[in-house]
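Field log, afternoon session.

UNIT: design team B
ACTIVITY: writing a sequence onto a fixed backbone
BACKBONE:
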């Protein structure tokens, strides 16, 4: 209890942990409406996802900067990975692919846009590493091409469920993970790459190694449980709200798993630490594209619901637009509030289009 109070005092967002028992009560005993259960489960995932990052940062103090950097890179999108794995097991493959697209767009347009807007209003023109932005932009373009090629070529190769198309997705997934590993190796050897946003924000608790491991294990189990609840009510929620499963995946699921990290990025931009803020947004996008997406391809084979890296035309167009405009505003190593507003405007337009899709 003392640990929980300490965490809530550090970050009021953790008060949403109260939604965890309420979601379980509503789903298993009181049988509340699917929409209410969905909202409670989503609210519970937000602080749990943040706690994974906090526990990982606490562990980094004991493992050293290199292993700590590896842990941060590996567990940065753990919550969303867990949600998508549960969704694959339930056969909701379109939801999973939409969440991949939505996560990349959310980081590049929503998070970077809010950070540049807020930071620009408070601090004027802000500067960050243009060389790092250039390297990240190249990797983002490569990641987008890797997702584009199977989508364009699969129709000529065979049916979506054919072995040839599946082999193409698996081959591309292997290359994507290799690129991610090489990029991670390069970053860990870079002297400035071991800084991390939560350390800068000053919210890392002084937990013992044992406490950090216990919290990480419990929080991971909690996210798995909440993901089961969340995914279990997706279909009735889609029917009751009249929105598409695609919209839930592309907008809501990424926000649920990453809102805590998004808030930290915006907060750091307000403190004129734009280097770290941009790094959070772009690194998270790269991790989704080059690590999470290919991992899901392999995991889906084991779960009996093969996931191919084949995205619809709307997703591909949105991805290309997001990568191009984010690269354009970051190549010069400077940002201002107008550029942030432009990124947000593109995200809102895409969100409206996705909402209106049948």
């Amino acid at each position: 209890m003392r640990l929980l109070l300490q965490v809530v005092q550090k970050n009021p967002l953790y008060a949403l942990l109260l939604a965890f028992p309420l979601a379980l009560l509503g789903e298993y005993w009181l049988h509340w409406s699917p929409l209410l259960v969905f909202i409670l489960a989503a609210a519970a995932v937000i602080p749990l996802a943040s706690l994974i990052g906090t526990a990982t940062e606490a562990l980094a103090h004991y493992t050293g900067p290199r292993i700590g950097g590896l842990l941060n890179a590996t567990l940065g999108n753990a919550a969303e990975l867990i949600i998508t794995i549960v969704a694959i097991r339930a056969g909701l493959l379109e939801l999973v692919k939409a969440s991949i697209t939505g996560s990349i767009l959310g980081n590049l347009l929503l998070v970077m846009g809010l950070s540049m807007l807020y930071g620009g209003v408070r601090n004027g023109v802000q500067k960050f590493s243009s060389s790092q932005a250039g390297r990240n932009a190249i990797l983002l373009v490569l990641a987008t091409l890797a997702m584009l090629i199977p989508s364009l070529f699969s129709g000529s190769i065979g049916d979506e469920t054919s072995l040839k198309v599946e082999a193409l997705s698996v081959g591309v997934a292997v290359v994507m993970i290799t690129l991610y590993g090489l990029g991670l190796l390069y970053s860990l050897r870079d002297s400035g790459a071991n800084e991390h946003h939560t350390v800068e924000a000053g919210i890392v608790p002084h937990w013992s190694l044992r406490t950090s491991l216990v919290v990480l294990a419990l929080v991971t189990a909690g996210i798995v449980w909440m993901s089961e609840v969340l995914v279990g009510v997706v279909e009735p929620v889609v029917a009751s709200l009249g929105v598409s499963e695609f919209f839930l995946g592309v907008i809501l699921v990424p926000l649920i798993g990453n809102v805590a990290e998004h808030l930290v990025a915006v907060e750091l931009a307000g403190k004129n630490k734009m280097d770290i803020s941009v790094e959070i947004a772009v690194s998270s996008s790269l991790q989704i594209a080059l690590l999470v997406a290919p991992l899901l391809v392999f995991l889906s084979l084991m779960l009996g619901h093969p996931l191919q890296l084949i995205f619809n035309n709307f997703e591909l167009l949105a991805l290309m637009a997001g990568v191009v405009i984010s690269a354009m505003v970051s190549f010069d190593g400077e940002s201002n509030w107008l550029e942030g507003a432009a990124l947000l405007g593109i995200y809102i337009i895409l969100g409206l289009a996705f909402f209106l899709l049948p």
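LOG NOTE: Strands lie at 126-127, 334-335.
NEXT ACTIVITY: expression trials, pending approval
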